[in-house]
């Protein structure tokens, strides 16, 4: 589904240049659950942002189901993103001024889904995420785990082909973290492709494949089978 | 401590350059606008106050009563000053003088037509003009003497010493220059370039000596011994007419010289305002603009408070008192006001010449005047204080524990205050837009209103010098027509745009004897209506056949209506006791105020009274070559006089001066006010966009387009501007209908000005806000999310 070739990304400030991605090659098949791991500053978040069309690389190729995405202009990128991708962030990134329901509804509004359909879709996902009784609350009124559930719900409500998760458990304690991970696994089993950046090998254990990054290179790849059970 | 505060203030200002620019820029424009307006107000306010005894000096007003109304004017009998001197105690000086009128004055080859005043010696005692050379003490007691102003003396004599030299007056009288005085101040009601003795006036116009108490032909000024005498003198003056003419209805009121210019509007014999009303508007406008600039500062300072909160917390934690903090924040705003003032200075010096040419004024900053510096320092301090006091209170109120932990979401209260301030600014802006639009509509309406004749391509030439003789008058007419420059010629006893020449002594069958109606009267030449493009409604107009005819009259429609004549042509009425016959009716045409219905008018045909030739330019000819031809012909026939040819429509334009001035000022300073308001809005948008950066990024990640984001950010501001418009409309309606009510001919207030206000304020708001939010909306969303 995703084919990335020779991706390069350099951050420039007044004094220094930092190479975040240094010729990355990567493929993700449909229905896969891929973890990206590596030390701080190895470029894993940058890679995820590029995959989510939130950031532009200097050079390379990024094909999504045979469409070259790096050639798109801003508007096309934005359209492609909202049609195909969902995001889960470490710090949830919910909008404080909107209720749980409204937060989840937001991407549907931007996808121009009619109001009635919107309501049905949001209600469905709220039930699935088990946050029905929280739908009228504001983000600050929820625990971290609940907030992340809302964020996941918001990422899924548009039924994206690809979910990109940036350290989804980073701000959560272990029990809440496991809840979120189980949610992602469940999703993956239903056919959604997931790419997750994580520090935690515990979390990475939930995925099918682990990619290790260092200094902007892929240094190793590992297929996971049955490890999840062993760790628990 | 002060040094430290200053350092922090300077660093804060430097660190936030865009805010500093917006703040200082807004304050500078506000201060400059305010100061220029105040300069104008001071200029008007200073009218006639240059004379040392101005507080004790009064202008004699004559209230003449009839059934309908009381008319007040400063025209009095020549006998009055003498009688006051003799009989009324408490008066130090009483003078009579003419009003300024242009006359020819020449020295060798230099001829100038310049305004002159004939006055007695007391005139110079009351109005103590600065004497530059010569002896003015006895100058006006003689007959053939003259006092020149500096500029005229220079024009006539160049570098020569004018004293005791001889000039010629109207090519007839020989006068000796006895003194030179400084130019009359620009803001003085009596504008002349030379002064002549009253005795000369009597010599040239023999009727003056014999004119009695019924002839109001001059200006009388009084100076009291001291101000306390006013009530006693007023009481004695009131019935001065009745003491001299038994059946007179006239009464006298004394108008202070200092109020002559500004309080020139009389109703029922009392001064009820006038220019002062317009001046008050300007005064208010000056402070409103400054206030708007101050509001910007308040808005931006409180908006940025979160950034300062930590500093406040730390300072309080290490022991600073609230007062010390307030002090610090006030110092910052004083510093900014000071920067604004320096910039305002530059703006003023740059803008004043433009302003002067636009408004036809000659304002300048008088650096040697202590009042200017007091105003300057006062305004700067007041600005700094007003702008800084609320932010100082607000910022210094933070509790250290809370702010050091993080600000949280306590900004709601200040947000609503900020919104209220923005609404306030735009209420003012929308009001100004509506009022400006109404002023322009009214002006256009009056300008477009038919005036009863075709003023385009009509020129007026005064019949002076050689042209006073009938032969030369006829010669000029023939030559002009032959030259092809003009297609028609007629005469008139006054300029087409002049008032005056009116009488009460007209009566007709069926007239109520107590009814006093004022009729304008003019002597008109042959083919008068044809030449000026007016319309005869009935009967015929004067032709060459009506030679010096004092019994046949043409009336205007208003006169016919006033007399109630059903069949005007052939009707008779009495004028000054003699019976006269109506031969024609002319459609009303405007000679006085275009804002009022034309007064009744009587036209007659007496050649001796013709003062102006009126000529219709050949519409097929080239204007400038025609004008040159005309000037040449006039100069050839009347070589001793400068050519005074004028276009009737130029003169007519002057009738709109007041409204034009108001319109221009409202437009100009309204523009500034709006600009300053948008600066504030820009700052607020800057802040809002920054504050909502994270939210915007999230929305973008979720698929919001640039347009979505722009709409989101603009929505709030549009709401505020809409609310402001709603508040402004009733206000603007009241103000503008109040202003309009002073005009007899006025427009109905339409929806258009309000539409313009809504549209303009919204466009301005959207553009301003988008200018900033566009950047945020276009930004890469991840930048804001990455560094949480």
Q: Can I get a quick summary?
A:
Chain A: InterPro entries: AAA+_ATPase, ABC_transporter-like_ATP-bd, ABC_transporter-like_CS, MacB-like_ATP-bd, P-loop_NTPase. Chain A is an alpha/beta fold. Chain A contains eight helices and ten strands.
Query: What class would the helix/strand composition of chain A place it in?
Result: alpha/beta
Mean pLDDT of chain A: 85
Shape of chain B: elongated
Quick one: which chains have the greatest interface? A-B, 26 and 21 residues
Sheet of most strands of chain A:
6 strands, mixed
* Rg value of chain B: 33 Å
User: Strand share of the residues of chain A?
Assistant: 25-35%
The largest β sheet of chain B comes out as:
8 strands, mixed
Number of structural units classed as domains of chain A: 1
Radius of gyration of chain A: 18 Å
Uncertain stretches of 5 or more adjacent residues of chain A = 227-232
Number of helices, counting only DSSP H or I runs of 4 residues or more of chain A: 8
What's the architecture of chain A in CATH terms? 3-Layer(aba) Sandwich
Count of all domains of chain B: 3
Strand order of the largest sheet of chain A: 6-7-8-3-9-10
Keywords (chain A): ATP-binding, Nucleotide-binding, Translocase, Transport
Domain ABC transporter (chain A): 2-232
Family (chain A): Belongs to the ABC transporter superfamily. Macrolide exporter (TC 3.A.1.122) family.
InterPro entries (chain A): AAA+_ATPase, ABC_transporter-like_ATP-bd, ABC_transporter-like_CS, MacB-like_ATP-bd, P-loop_NTPase
